[in-house]
Amino acid sequence: MTEQEDGFDPRRARRRLLLLSVTAFAAVALVMLALIQIYGYEAVRDGWDDMAPVVIAIKWGGMAVLIWQWDDIIAWVAKRQRMSNGYRDYLLGIRWRVATALVVLEVLFGQNLLAHLLN
Q1: Helices 70-81 and 85-93 meet at what angle, rounded to 10?
Q2: Cα 55–42–109 angle (5° rounding)?
Q3: 55-96: per-residue pLDDT in tens?
């Protein structure tokens, strides 16, 4: 069975994931802009500063759960998307590369390390 017969197209899956990411980003941006228009910038910034520890804990917890349950998540996605065994095995093999990338991105951008280094 080829990948086309199998029903899974990695390029289509990447496009769908990109579209989902852009849509989610746009939705969050629109909500933030609406909140700023309604309550003002200072109130929204103060509210975000108050919520920051909870948001950070959720981000790190989500990353930990993702990496801890990686095999089960990939198995579920592979079954749902009818992935070939080769592509599923590839995804299973990149677990620690994904974990490293998530941690580096979170430290550089989420914790503002890049801004501190540039100042």
Answers
A1: 160
A2: 40
A3: 999 999 999 999 999 999 999 999 998 888 998 999 999 999
Helices 41-68, 70-81: crossing angle, 10 deg rounding: 90
Contact 103, 63 (CB under 8 A): yes
Section 96-109 average pLDDT = 92
Structure token pair of residue 5: 């017969």
Residue 47 CA to residue 43 CA, distance in Å, equals: 6
- In the chain, the amino acid numbered 86 is G
Three-state helix/strand/coil letters over 56-89: HHHHHHHHHHHHHCHHHHHHHHHHHHCCCHHHHH
pTM exceeds cut of 0.85: no
Give tens-digit pLDDT for 20-45.
Answer: 999 999 999 999 999 999 999 999 99
57, 63 Cβ separation under 8 angstroms:
no
